[in-house]
Design goal:
By secondary structure, the protein is mainly alpha-helical. About 50% of the residues lie in helices and about 10% in strands. A hairpin with a 6-residue loop joins strand 1 and strand 2. Helix 1 packs antiparallel against helix 2 and helix 2 crosses helix 3.
Length: about 90
């Protein structure tokens, strides 16, 4: 998937940014420049990870749905930008 062809997947329900930005891996301090679509998926993954971690009921069907959406998002990101994926998500 090239950066110029990063269309919003049908399954993705989050905000879809047109403009990218630089993000920093909080564990390593490494900075990565992301396209708008990559930033959209990144933000969703970050929010989903946090929500799952603080959820008091890990067996809740909504938490399960969120985990599945996060996995799809990680797969999308891994294909869209393998280099950034390694820098940002290799620890997930």
């Amino acid at each position: 998937m090239s950066k110029s062809n990063q269309e919003k997947p049908e399954w993705f329900k989050g905000a879809w940014y047109k403009t990218g930005d630089t993000v920093t891996n909080s564990s390593t301090g490494e900075k990565v420049e992301l396209s708008g679509p990559e930033l959209s998926i990144y933000d969703f993954i970050s929010g989903a990870e946090w929500t799952i971690q603080i959820s008091p009921d890990q067996d809740d069907p909504l938490v399960d749905e969120l985990k599945k959406a996060m996995e799809k998002s990680l797969d999308w990101f891994r294909e869209a930008n393998p280099s950034a994926y390694k820098k940002l998500f290799d620890n997930i």
